[in-house]
Every structure is written in structure tokens, then in C-alpha cells.
């Protein structure tokens, strides 16, 4: 492959995130999608028909193995539920094709470590779709931090308001708020911090009469080997969509910065600048995760969102969940599988 030729994608899964995120992202980026499959061939066929204009040659396969064997498929986009991922990935590793996997790669750190170990043994590169890193406003914030515009960081905070009080497969998982939805924010917090949290304390709350089986609010504190102070709060039960918001605040010894869904602002001693980049978290973030992965594949380097990096985010989320289940007791972030010093 090279920089000028996009990798041809085969998508495993045909659910809501594929319909509203992955396929629109690939259409926007003119990424060739060669094939799709799902547990229900009917569902995959219907979705392929919906996107027939954007992907006129999109084929529907009857299984993930059949899709992986398709010679026109060069990269596998795994957009299934986290349950059963280990078995699915084991079936796909023999085909030797790189995998871009929805987060979390698994609900448990043990299972995710096993996936990492077996993928490394098979020589298969895996990246995880941490698409918030490429949401336009959040990417601008992250770029400022990585470029040193803020100097040494002293404080990081995230406040998120949304609504997911529904009874569906993901809200039936007791750890959903930490291991799935909140994983986005813990991951971006790790990237902004630029250093690994060593311990975490968390509280989680359920509301009387809520429909979801998982908690719908959390408050998380992160501890580092240094002066950085970081906190994240999420309330997932606003009464109206008008209350939805996502705000990041980052403070350093040179400048301060903030970001919302739509804007990123840098405050320095000489003034403030606000950027309102075009695009949205979805689909732009999903396209960004694909683009970064294929660029790394072209250059034979590890992408920033490879599986080894994901394991550290999942370890942090797992420790936060354990803390919330233990009345906020501080928990050390557990070690993860690593190869070649990662």
C-alpha cells in the first residue's frame, strides 16, 4: 500500500454505529468499502442497499470468515458488540489482515490482554477506534497540548452531559458507563495528560426509577506521579437534549485551553484564539481513526491508537469501575500486556 491508495475495507457488523457512523465516514472520505457482513444477512443486505449510491460495489457476505477471505478486502473494520470479541478475532487472525476494532476491544482486561497477545503472536496489527481523539475540536485541543502550547500541565477537567436512560444491550452491562461510553473521555484524558495515571478514585450513581440497568452518573479523580490534577464527571440522564454538552478544560504554566463539541479556545498572556473547525465527532472522528491507522500501516509504524495503547485506557477504566464498586476507594491502575517495550 501507499499514501495515495486507500485501504479497501470490509465491515463486520451492521448495527446503528455502522449505519450512522462508519459508512457515512467512509463515504465522506471516499474510502472504498468492499464488503459487509452481520449475524443477520438480511440486516447487512438492507444496509448495503441503503448505501448503494455511495458504495455501488458493496458485497454482502454470510460470515466474518467469508468476508476476511475476500481478496478485495484489505482491512477489517470490526463493529460488533464487545461480547464475543475474543472468539471473533481468533477466527480472523489467520487471514493476516489488519483490524480496526470498536472500543472497548473487550469488556474485561484479561480478555483484552489475551487478544493483544494472540494478535502479536500472529503478527496482525490492531488499532482501536478511539474516534474522539479525531473529533475536530478535541483534536485541535490535543494538538495544542502536544505542541507544548500550554507548557507543563497542572490541571485537566472534563464535564459531560448526555442522555442514555434506555433499556438496550449496552445499558444492561453494569460497567457500561466506565468501560464503554466513558472510555472515550478517559482515553482522551490520557492523551492530553501525556503521562499515565497511576491510581484512580470513582463514584457512580443510579437514579430512582431509571430505565438503564447501569449507573448513569460518575465522578472520577486521576492520580499521577507528578503535580497534574485531573477529574472527569458524566451525567447521562439530562431531562432534555438542550442540556447536552461536553466541556474540556486544560491548564498549564504557559497557557489555558478549553474545548466543546464545536470549538477549541486557547488563552495566552497575549490574548485568546477560538477555532470552530468544520466537521463533527461522528463521522469525522471515525474517518480520522481509519486515516491514522492506514497511514501507520503505509509507513510500517505503530499507530497512536494501537491495541497496546488501548489496553492502558481499558486498564484505567477497569480500575475506575472497581473503585466505584468499592465506595470510591483508590485503586492502582493495573499493568497490561506489552510487547517490544510498549
Automatic annotation (TrEMBL):
The coiled-coil segments of this chain are none
Q: Where are the transmembrane segments?
A: none
Per its UniProt entry, which superkingdom is the organism in? Bacteria
The GFO/IDH/MocA-like oxidoreductase domain, residue ranges: 140-255
Q: Which Pfam families match?
A: GFO_IDH_MocA, GFO_IDH_MocA_C3
Q: Which residues form the Gfo/Idh/MocA-like oxidoreductase N-terminal domain?
A: 8-130
- InterPro entries annotated for this entry? Gfo/Idh/MocA-like_OxRdtase_N, Gfo/Idh/MocA_oxidoreduct, GFO_IDH_MocA-like_dom, NAD(P)-bd_dom_sf
Which keywords fit this entry according to its UniProt record? Answer: Oxidoreductase
Oxidoreductase as UniProt keyword: yes
Record keywords: Disulfide bond included?
no
Molecular function GO terms recorded: nucleotide binding; oxidoreductase activity
What's the family?
Belongs to the Gfo/Idh/MocA family.
Protein name per Swiss-Prot or TrEMBL: Uncharacterized protein
